[in-house]
């Protein structure tokens, strides 16, 4: 049917003649989408090759509501347009045809299916005369670009910049540039500009964020996209010119898209515009705002800090008439990033390959000092490699460094560290019969501590696996061995020497979790999971203005914590119950420890038990959350401190959003209760 005949037939019907072209187009599109639903109820004698004469009643009523005409008019319009609707291409066919048309006839003329203009066509600077006059921006620059889409792979595109002739503000698709400052527009753009000529569709970035929630690394996100998505290498056919950029996605582009979308989301929630330097290297552009993001979380806490719901808040009548009872559970997990080798130093490394920070001059000097503990002699120069050693000219120290290098070449050390890190994270989930006989065994989970045995008679030096305790709360001061025990040990075993040839890493991350699964906060333990550090973290976290102080703190080493609180008389924890979680109290703590049995047993608190005497709250939620959080160990191990904190905080925020959504769907009424002054 030609256009003239189509409109001539429509004009014969009074109601159809008043239809808009948009409604006519919608009628044809939805009728075409419903072809299978239209043909299925027809008698078996009706051919599937041609449009049937009669629509099913449900389809008629549906189209009547879509285009706002009577069912009788729907039947009349179907009679006119049925042959046209029956041959319309599907959505996928139309999309493929569109891309092919642009490829055949558009690219050589500078026309693509994706042309990314600024969202404004007028200058938005209120101090500019062009804004006051409402002048349209006409000075433009255009560049070839590549758009990475979620469902259809990479596509060629044009990126168009509009420049104001008066104030010289340059408007791009995502942001404007003036005086060297890049100011992003409000909201979330449909395409995220991750480089000068590369854009990523917002839905694709959100898909990567979801994959990162299950510990898919940035590298694997890029690799998966390059394998799975349809590719044309953004090169055209023989009759067209090749595009300037290919369709390969890089790891840096995935990370920058993640960072930028997270920052835009955060600034949108704060109702402020994101501003970053326009010049400089891309890898450094967002460092300052990422650091500010982390600092704001430290000062104000995560967005779910004041969380409460039916899964973590219990209404319980206490003898003192207290009603609401809440608890939080905390535990450490082996996730860390490179840090200064000096214990308790929190200064960032200038380079992740360094062993000591450059902020403290005394620490910086250690890079050129012998790595063996107790030796202050300068390192020597290796004439073969032309590089500086990490040991002095002492033959024993040189052999120690050689043993360290040999262990790295063998790959045994790295493999063992990875296995032990996984074991450390899984310890709490083992059934009692599977636990090692010695539950206090030392596990090497860091790169830094290395012990060596030196046989004075033979001169042999042997690397011993480092004795670093697992992520379990310990007292700051441990009981010392008797002098007699030390003497006996020295007779039977060679003396051990300690060195720091390798990089040190932060010991673990301490999570504070509600029984419902919402994470309240996170803290980095630099040296070890000392209970004093845990107490400081808890006090700081629940002293924030938006925080609600819990009535119970559950922790696998709470007997040590409670001793610390009583000895130091810390007022903040007055009235707060401190119990060991049910699993560790039953399987890991001695029954003969009367202090732990009497003061740290959850069964001693009726508000923590249900009517049947079972535990009301899930006291193992921290260990269960650590299974998820510990999967980030290998992803984060080479991140800089700024990127490390930003990434983990973003993962926590997005997991909390998923958890809150699930709690709401379960009818547990997640909310932020009003804080009482």
Any descriptors?
single chain, about 675 residues, alpha+beta, 9-stranded mixed sheet, 6-stranded mixed sheet, 23 helices, about 15% strand, globular
Provide a descriptive summary of the structure in words.
- This protein has 677 residues and is of the alpha+beta class.
- Helix content is 38%, strand content 14%.
- It is built from 23 helices and 20 strands.
- Strands 1, 2, 3, 4, 5, 6, 7, 8 and 9 form a nine-stranded mixed sheet that branches.
- A hairpin with a 4-residue loop joins β7 and β8.
- The longest helix is centred in the C-terminal third of the chain and has 25 residues, at 641-665.
- It is globular.
- Mean pLDDT is 85; it is low at 420-446, 467-471 and 478-491.
Net shape: globular
Radius of gyration: 33 Å
What integer is the average pLDDT? Answer: 85
Amino-to-carboxy terminus distance: 75 Å
Strand content: 5-15%
DSSP summary: helix tally: 23
Main β-sheet: number of strands, strand sense, barrel status? Answer: 9 strands, mixed
Let me know the number of strands. Answer: 20
Helix content: 25-40%
* Helix/strand/pairing category: alpha+beta
Can you tell me the residue ranges where pLDDT is under 50 for at least 5 consecutive residues? Answer: 420-446, 467-471, 478-491
